[in-house]
Amino acid sequence: LEQGNADLAVASYQTSLAINPGHLNAHYNLGNALRILARLDEAVAMYRQVLAINPAYGEAHNNLGLTLQQQGKLAEAIACFSKVTALNPDNAEGHFILGNAFLESGRIDEAEAAFKKTITLNPDFAEAHLNLGNVYNEVQDIGKAVDSFRDALAINPDLADAHYNLGNALLIMQREDEAMDCFEKTLAINPDYCEAYNNLGNALYGLGQPARACDNYRKALAITADYAVAHSNLIFTQDLFPDIDQAAQQAERKRWNDTFIVPLSDQIRPHDNDKNPQRRLRIGYVSADFRRHSACLGFAPLIIDHDRQNFDVICYDATPTSDDVSATLRAAASQWRDIKNIDDAELAATIRDDAIDILVDLSGHTRGNRLKIFGHKPAPLQVTGIGHLAPGLTTIDYRLTTQWITPPEEAGIYPEQPIYLDTYFGFTAPPAPPPLRPPPCLENGFMTFGFLGRFNKISDASLALWAGILQAVPDSRLLLKYSQLDAHEARQKIIETFAAFGINPDRLTLLGNTDQGQHLEAHNRVDIVLDSVPHGGGITALESLWMGVPVIGLVSPEKAGSRIIQSICQPLGLEQCATGSLEDYHACALHWAAHADELLPIRQRLRQRVSDTYGRFPGDVEKSYRLIWQRWCKGETTAPLWHVGKPHT
Question: CA–CA distance from 598 to each of 550, 571, 591 (Å)?
Fold first, then answer.
């Protein structure tokens, strides 16, 4: 057994037991050899024989527990580990193993107590500090988690998992620079730690370094080719590259589909849903963003304002943490299922048992997506397009879009058939909206431009463009607002960047993270919002328009993500704000600066126009659900669905 030859060891132990059936250590060692060979049922039987001879044999209780844990029998395993600690209360290792089982089974309070007991018995038990940090992660006490991971590393600086988990906690706290350092230390210890490459990519993405982020996602995939999360992150990050056109992005999506969806084709079974075209339909929504999140602001009306007479709404929630928005959505839904700890095959079976008629993906390739369940085709019709661009899955039938996001001549590069709407996401207004104030230029005497979006969308081209506008408009100001500006280093970098263009710091207003109400209120300090290029904002742009502030953006014929600004502005009658070149973008900003008197009437009417236009979204989507359902009932093949809802005028 010590030489690694478990098969020969089994034969020897069996011979020993044939000679002496009551040989306690032979039973125990045979159990260990069987466990090494993954003959788990036989190992369990052998440990039970040991305990029948000697119920106080602590090592047998321990190894029986470990074997049961491997079999997924956590309650029985915990009973074994509890016996170990009862037999030897001062056994730190026993409390540690018990804590691990509690943590795996979701018994968080008991896991915390077990790890604390371990540390009391052995303060230098680095892995116990590490797993105590994991407990704090589970309850979202990130500050305590960070402290525990640091305690583990103070004892053992070579503990790769502690560096990795500390990096993850710092990512949650949006301390990307520190997180990046942690992941690099993880990889110095373990160069094959593919999850560390992936999360290093996430840190770099958060720092606005998409090229380096993609390099690390590819390194993760080089280690683990079927690492779906890293591949989704690569696809998502490609939105930020102006030289990767939509056809190339779809080719990457096809590779994802071929790797993770096509192999599931043999799992698809016929559906026996009642083919009554007019009956009440059961709509399933799958998302990891049922919380205060920009994507949720776009799809929340589908749940909150759904037609309760004709539709049941079942939400499949993969959201890591809940908040007040989660509670509102849960109250509005017909049914709510927590799917965080359910694997794809089990979840697909649950959705089928729930008799879902239309299953809707609200994530695309964004973080936390559960796209692989769509490969099982648990519902007869599957839809995507809200939350991110269509993911390119051959098992998804339709995608919500607009004629601006997907020109008809481009529709063929997507496997999902288009449903053309006037708007392809909605807007959720806050319960206590900030008041609209006149454009600040009317009082200040100077124009204030602004950007209030995601930091990682700010490209070098964006900064150069905005600096050029400031240079061309005397005395104008620029307000920037994103969470990274809470850090002194980030503010200093922006100041230095604009100084290189000859822009004095006193022309910059730099604001950090706030709650949604304060974020919206900040728009009252801005006359014109300048969108990022090449990838502009979605919900963030719509928030600005709802606050009455025109948004200037750049439309790229090469990328769907760069056409969002046109899709947002066109239905609102602001076509001139969706420009076709950097020169036009610059000229549009100068036009508004020279016609400040036109901003007041626009500010006064935009909120109502956004509310009217985007308020139609839930009804238009449900109308499309009914139409594609009627097609399915008739046995018709999927095909583009045009002009759902009120046509644009």
Answer: 11, 19, 10
